Each structure stands twice: as structure tokens, then as C-alpha cells.
Automatic annotation (TrEMBL):
Catalytic activity as recorded in UniProt: Random endo-hydrolysis of N-acetyl-beta-D-glucosaminide (1->4)-beta-linkages in chitin and chitodextrins
Enzyme Commission designation: 3.2.1.14
Classification lineage: Eukaryota, Metazoa, Chordata, Craniata, Vertebrata
Alphabetical list of InterPro entries matching this protein: Chitin-bd_dom, Chitin-bd_dom_sf, Chitinase_II/V-like_cat, Chitinase_insertion_sf, GH, Glyco_hydro18_cat, Glycosyl_Hydrlase_18
Entry protein name: chitinase
A Gene Ontology biological process term: chitin catabolic process
Enzyme type, top EC level: hydrolase
Keywords, comma-separated and alphabetical: Carbohydrate metabolism, Chitin degradation, Chitin-binding, Disulfide bond, Glycosidase, Hydrolase, Polysaccharide degradation, Secreted, Signal
Region (Disordered): 245-298
Domain GH18: 1-244
GO cellular component, one term: extracellular region
Domain Chitin-binding type-2: residue ranges: 300-349
Species of provenance: Hemibagrus guttatus
Amino acid sequence: MSINGAVLLNACFVLQELQQAYEAESSATGRPQLMLTAAVAAGKLTIDAGYEIAEIARYLDFISVMTYDFHGTWESVTGHNSPLYQWSQETGAQTYLNTNYSMTYWKNQGAPVEKLRMGFATYGRTFQLSSTESGLGAPTSGPASAGIYTREAGFWSYYEVCSFLQGTSTQWIQDQKVPYATKGGQWVGFDNKESFNTKVTYLKDNMFGGAFVWSLDLDDFTGQFCGLGKYPLISELKKLLNSSSAPPAEGSTAETPLATGPTAGGSTAESPPATGPTAGGCTAPSAKNPPAETSPAVPRQYCEDRIDGIYPNPLDNKSFFLCSAGRQFVQPCPAGTIYKMSCKCCDWP
Ligand SMILES: *[C@@H]1O[C@H](CO)[C@@H](O)[C@H](O)[C@H]1NC(C)=O
């Protein structure tokens, strides 16, 4: 069973019940117990507003941290979709918007490292430049034109990025260890084999439990756009994870699971680690340390009279609201997906 992060808000009790149900089913049928996994928010503000990390971690076999969508056209300057580290010119809450910060934060809040999976993006987020500046933090006026195939303004699949790269060169953001490219007033921050390589080294050095990808169909799955064979990024990721160079102690990543796409870590017949309490462990829902609001585009009063939880964004179905103690946060849906009331989650249109 895989759960979208949005539904996890104050959901410790639900997880506890699910885990007990799985346990009962397993002992009744003699079959291996089902795994319980969740894709969770990477942003610190969303984490603070929504999760009791140590509690939910006890009931989950894997926690897939969505370490992408850190920057995009909801902002007014260029920024990378999935930086590994912070940019030296960032200050305040900006410094939370990177993979290293999120993974470290989930770990330090009490999630066991071996349960934490790092998200890898096979797409980039785009901007239209509004001046002659073209580096990181350059002023923008919105998204670049929609991709020919994905047809949604603001992001390009990796295979669309490859087409864009013809006639321009790939720039490397030293601080963040990820590439971007710019041409004709358009700008895209994306991932390539080099950034995947650096990120896997980071993942192994920190002994995180594995990786997952958003998403299979955004890689160059036919191999005809990038000239790097079929599924160049996902193949590279698999190779890097399986390579035994610089293995961590206790070898938890030697056979790192590679989960993919929206169904990452779904029901499987594997046995979970024999850990996790069977009773207790959940406290009453609370909005702890409500963080500062960060979303200027949203009507301020939206969350004022609403109970804590997840709500559709009336202005944009590619994001949703998180209300916590009357404060509101906008959480973008992963590339290509929209928010759906029916599942209270981001899903393919
Ligand atoms: C990674 O994150 C940790 C915790 O936030 C921080 O102390 C460390 O300096 C970061 N590393 C880099 C290279 O930014």
C-alpha cells in the first residue's frame, strides 16, 4: 500500500491501524506481510505543519522523500527543481529548499536513515527570462513554453530537455551540483547523469535506504531524443545504486531498492523489517511550530476558518493548500500531475 504525502497529515492513527491490519492478515493467511510506504513532502515548512515524523516512521517500511519541485514558476526568479545543496546566496527559509536539507531534516526528526528514500527527477522546471540575466536567481516572467509532448507550461520531461540542449550548452551550478541550460530567453533546471551520479554518492555516503524516481515516462524512454540509449537517467541510477564502489558500512544500500513513479513502493510481497510497535505511539493531532507563511499568490484568508488539513487550490489544480492552525501553505503537485479531490492527492490528469 502506498500513500500520498497529502493524506498523511496527522495520519499516525491510520498508519497504525493499517499496520495492524497487515499483521493480522499475514498471520491469518501465512503470507508475507504487506509493506506500507509513503511519498512525503520535502519542504521544511510542510513537514513542520503536517507530520509527526518519528511517529509515522514507526509504521512505515519506506518513506520516499519528494526531493524535487523545490523551485518552479510559482516563484519570480530562476531556481533549480531539485538541487542537492543550497546556493551560497540563499538566506532564511530559502536554505531549506534542497535535497540535503530535506533528507537531513527527516533524519534528524527521527526517521531511521534506512527507511528514507531520496527522490530523483527525470524532468526539469522551466522559466521565461524577463531580462538579459540568465543565471540562478535571474528575474522571470513565468514558465517557458510548454513541451511539445508533455504540453504543460512550467516543466519539460528529460527527453524534451535533450531537444532544447541542441544549440546551447549545459551549465553546471557549482553550489547545488545540478545543471541548467538557457536559450532564446528560456531557462530550465534539470538533472542529468552527472547530477544523478553526485546525488547517489551523497545518498550512499549518508547511508539512506534507497532511491525512487519521478517518473518513468519522463525519462528518454525510447532513447531517440538524448542519444544516450533507452531510459538514460533511470539506467544510470540503477547502475550507480548497484555499483559497489564506496559502499557504506552495514551495507544497507548494497541492494538499494529502486522504486519508480506514482506507484512507488506499492504493495509487494516482501517481508518488512521486524520492527514497529503494535500499540500506542500516536499522539493527538497537533499543528506543532506553525511556520511562517510563504505563499504570496494565495488569498491570505483561505485557511482562516478551516480545520487543519489538505484542500484543493481554487486558483490552480497543479498545487494544493495545506492549512495548519489557520495558516496556509501551497504545495506543488509533482510534474505532470494535478490535485484530485477524490483521493486527496496529486495524480495523473
Ligand atoms: C547539508 O545539510 C546539513 C544539515 O542542514 C548542513 O549542516 C550541511 O552543511 C549541508 N551540506 C552542504 C554541503 O550544504
